[in-house]
Design brief:
2 domains, alpha+beta, five-stranded mixed beta sheet, twelve-stranded mixed beta sheet, Fumarylacetoacetate hydrolase, domain 2, single chain, 19 strands
């Protein structure tokens, strides 16, 4: 049996159904209250989770504010063009190796956090997020899942004006504005899922389905990405991998996010995150529309 780990207002908690159990309390003090510290005790989390039916719940999830289950990751990796149809809609060649870039850890936020948009060219990208458990280097693909602490839902929000402000595009900064990495609602261990390699994924904006696919359509699946990164860098407990997004993002149709848009992202077995977009102050390049963005806008206006 696995576990579901939440960050309830800054405290680690195990989850069963609609209820949460404060980790420090339910472990009788053997484990602390820190969500990041909990990731170093995966075996203990599973053992305690198996006894929750005999424990008194701390409270109901509907009565609390969930925060990012991994609030302070050391590194945040992301993968571009990792669904075949998304590569096709972007007019890009199907990659032979994972196209990896970084999101700055400071962009990570909670599952219901508002998204602070700094231009009129912000985009959404629903993603499965992998959280590293046991660290190390040179891990074979066959051992990839053994180094995964859990999975959660994520959104790789992107400011396209920043991303395409230069040639070639600059991915890292445009995808790392404050609040541009909401994850949650909880961290789910792989053994809690019937098949962690095949999870339905959906993104709905203001009630309209904009993205819908299954993680079985990933070009490079979770264990492959874990193994690939382990061969190049030392991964540490709590590091994140945003595994890529399917087709349906806004940029190809010039449909960018607007103030007040509600973005709901759901992954089978992992739950949903819901984020409201709020138009904040312009960043320095907000009014300088890159040529690539202008072409998308012109194309959209033709239809």
């Amino acid at each position: 049996m696995g576990f579901r780990l939440a960050n309830v207002e800054g405290r680690a908690a195990l989850v069963r159904g609609d209820y949460y159990y404060d980790l420090e309390i339910v472990s009788n003090g053997t484990l602390g209250s820190g969500p990041m510290d909990a990731l170093s005790s995966l075996e203990e989390l599973s053992l305690i989770s198996a006894t929750l039916s005999d424990a008194e719940p701390t409270g109901n999830l509907n009565d609390v504010q969930l925060e990012s289950p991994v609030p302070i990751p050391g590194s945040v990796f992301a993968v571009g063009l990792n669904y075949r149809k998304h590569a096709e809609e972007s007019n890009m060649t199907i990659p032979n190796v994972p196209m990896v870039f970084s999101k700055y850890p400071s962009c990570i936020t909670g599952p219901t956090a508002d998204i602070d948009m700094r231009s009129d060219y912000s985009d959404f990208e629903a993603e499965l997020v992998v959280v590293i458990g046991q660290g190390g280097k040179n891990i074979p693909v066959t051992d990839g899942w053994n180094h995964v602490a859990g999975l959660c839902v994520g959104q790789d929000f992107t400011d396209r004006a920043v991303q395409f402000n230069s040639a070639p595009p600059q991915f890292d900064l445009g995808k790392s504005l404050d609040t541009f990495g909401p994850i949650g609602p909880v961290l789910v261990s792989p053994d809690e899922l019937d098949n962690p390699n095949s999870l339905g994924l959906e993104c709905i904006i203001n009630g309209e389905v904009r993205q819908k696919n299954n993680t079985s359509d990933l070009i490079f699946d979770a264990p492959t990405l874990v193994s690939y990164l382990y061969q190049l860098v030392t991964l540490k407990t709590g590091d994140l991998i945003f595994t890529g997004t399917p087709s349906g993002v806004g940029a190809p149709d010039g449909r960018f996010l607007k103030d007040g848009d509600v973005v709901t992202t759901t992954i089978e077995g992992l739950g949903s995150i819901r984020n409201v977009c709020v138009r904040g102050d312009d960043h320095p390049r907000a009014t300088v529309v890159p040529e690539f963005i202008q072409k998308l806008i012109d194309k959209s206006s033709e239809h």
